Amino acid sequence: MRRVVTISQTTGALREDVAVAVAQRLGFRRVDEEIVEAAAERQGLDPSIVGNVEKRRSFMQALREALDSGADADIAAVAYGGVAYVPQHSWDRTRRDYPPLLREVIRDVIRETAEQGDVVIGSHAGSVALPSGPELLRVLVTASPETRTRRTVETDEIDEREAKKRIEESDAGRADYLRRFYEIEDELTTHYDLVVNTEVLTTDEVVELIVAAASR
Known about the structure:
Layout: E1 4-9, H1 15-26, E2 29-31, H2 34-43, H3 47-53, H4 59-68, E3 78-80, E4 83-85, H5 102-116, E5 119-122, H6 126-129, E6 136-142, H7 145-156, H8 160-182, E7 194-197, H9 203-214
Parallel strand pairs: 1-5, 1-6, 2-5, 6-7
Antiparallel strand pairs: 3-4
Helix pairs in contact: 1-9, 2-3, 2-5, 7-8
């Protein structure tokens, strides 16, 4: 039996519903934003600052959000480009090591979470963060842009034009994330063991497929 299931998604593909159901069926715990919270705790940062590492943010946006988070004025940690930037006056100049890379901290948390086993990891590109192996099942949940746009219209109660824009921005952010974190220029189906299309399969059918594959 696979002891770790990673479920990646494109926005509007119903990954959240699938991840919850798969975890319940397998009796696994489900981990998502806990990854960011654990990485933040290790660095003594607000989770929102660490979360910004995973998003496309300009330097000024990151700076404003760091200051707004209520961080100590003497240590304004800014998540930018995956680096926890701390003003030089706030750390020991006699040490030769620089503030740690938050990207690597996030990757470490993903790996350590997987090592504990019996877990469904959602988001954070867990499928590419972890090496392929007999105990890991890497899943991508997706659907056509048209279907994802329609679902976003319904769930977010916005018009089609705005929904389409959100899908395009989300896809661009996803590609940017894979490029920055893992130097992946083109996401391939071979990055996954199972790719499911929720445009033609119901949530129950997708869950059955994933549970069957994980239970081998």
